[in-house]
Amino acid sequence: MWFFGDKRGQDLIDKVRALHSQDMVKDVLTQLYADLSTLDSKASGLLTVDGLFVAILSLYPSLNVIGDAKTRARITVLIDLQLVLAVVSAFLCMLVVRVSWRFYRLIPMNATTEADFEREIDRIANVIDDRTHYYWLAWLLTTFAFIVTLAWWSNWAGAAGAVALLIWTARRG
Questions:
Q1: The whole model's pTM is what?
Q2: 30, 70, 118, 159: least surrounded by Cβ within 10 Å?
Q3: What is the phi/psi pair of residue 150, to 5°?
Q4: Are 135 and 46 in contact (CB under 8 A)?
Q5: What is the maximal distance between C-alpha atoms in the chain?
Q6: What pLDDT, in 10s, does the model give residues 82-105?
């Protein structure tokens, strides 16, 4: 049962006991779950930045009093672009921090060998790989949204920020 009964989670206890009899597997799973926790922490921080971007940008509808119509139109386009970038980045961060797996679900109830744990290890490794890519793309979008902020003040500043980001990304691989 999901929420009722005194034996909720019993299958998890049995799987953890089996896991502790396999030292190598236990170390691998411990590391993989630590990696998921690291990704979760980083994505949570980036989600906060995205939230701040959206909150700050939502205060700018009062731009009708700033500058001439051409300046307002330019800034409005930049703000719209930033909002899209921040919202997409936030969505990707939500994909990273979501809990969508049942712990040890692919481990058979009577696991006794390392091979019994391989499917679970492969699944978690795939989850880490997917979430790493989500985080990387979210980070890139948020960084680009910041570069667009530089373009508010000057096209040159925005261009310099974009070139710096491209060079840094190319060197990082």
A1: 0.74
A2: 70
A3: -60, -35
A4: yes
A5: 74
A6: 899 999 999 999 999 887 656 777
